[in-house]
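Late entry, written up from scratch paper. The run itself happened at the end of the previous shift, but nothing got recorded in the book at the time, so transcribing now.
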Amino acid sequence: MASAIEQLAKNANWGALSKATELKKRLLFVMGALLVYRLGSFIPIPGIDPSVWNEIYSQRGGGILDMFNMFAGGALKRMTIFALNIMPYISASIIMQLATSLSPKLEALKKEGEIGRIKINQYTRYLTVLLAALQAYGLAVGLENMQGAGGSAVVDPGLFFRFSTVVTIVGGTVFLMWLGEQITQRGVGNGTSLIIFSGIVAGLPHAVASTLELGRQGRFNVLEMLVIFAMVTGVIAFIVFMERAQRRIVVQYPKRQTGNRMFMGDQNHIPLKLNTSGVIPPIFASSLLLLPLTIVGFSGAGGGDFTAAIARILQHGQPLYMTLYASLIIFFSFFYTAVVFNPQDNADMLRRYGGFVPGVRPGAPTAEYFDQVLTRITLAGAMYLVFVCLLPEILIAHYSLPFYFGGTSLLIVVNVTMDTVAQIHSHLIAHQYEGLIKKAKLKGRTR
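Output as recorded:
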């Protein structure tokens, strides 16, 4: 059976997609859902003066606003119903994940299986609505206080505008949360990740056109353009290699007897990813470092203000910014890895099922061994994240290379692409395997 599955995996090809009817329906559903999302990102919030808002954003943009706007596919810059995108849901998911590891009640609920998972998902949805409402109200109040050369960004400020803005933005966020769940269930890939992915990639054609225009104007010659292309390709290949890298810990299960039957011992492995924390450390680090720039932009602080002085030295490409960015990425890598992987729990579960790591005693010594291995690979993963995130910053700041993707967005795009392609490949293999079973049954009946 194992050899048959391996053979199917080798023979799986994209030409089989024409015969996989269910997979085609799933892919069409994903494309339709993402099209709805992109259309919604152009529907403006009622009561906003577009010309004034564009002027204000161009003057006070930068910092954390640009990062959120990139994740939202330009919806924040256009101030549409999807201005917050699905970020409140991601924040709520991270908060619930942290709370699950800190609260004994939530941890016990998580261990209840499917029922506990459903309850935690429901709590996450409630928290998403709360966070979206708070952020939408803050956005509405901030819009009322913004003034441009053409007047206020809000046509008719007041309680009704705040109420309508909160209802509109919260409704848009809840709709995207529902749409993401539908993509996950009825489509291919993770719905939330695909929504963020489509928002980031939406600006790629304009970025490529801008880069080619710079080359046409003579800022970059053909050789330099080829070097940039080769460098981007190399970084993407490096990310793919590192994201697939894992440390496999061998686990041995002893012989066991059930009734009158003796079952031989089995050997398995526990895969530990080199980058266990994913893209969470760069997102957290960027958000904290870009916060002073956002505060200065919206407060209109002068150059002599203490906050403005801090914001100046935290500009992209500055040595302090690079140092703090790298330090925060390393810190959040270790912090989030400790949250998602508990060595003691895994050691206890391994001992409960009779498994052990060869050469390591069960119980506390196994937990210490897991902790040592995880610490080493997390350090390597953190260094990898620092390299990927700081390389675009250095090239942009010192060489003025027109990179559209930063380290965080590049990691998201590559990871989502890998995950989606892997799931499509799994559907193709499953389809071929089902076809072989049907042929085998038909042959058995004819005999």
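DSSP finds 18 helices and six strands in the chain.
(Scratch paper discarded after transcription.)
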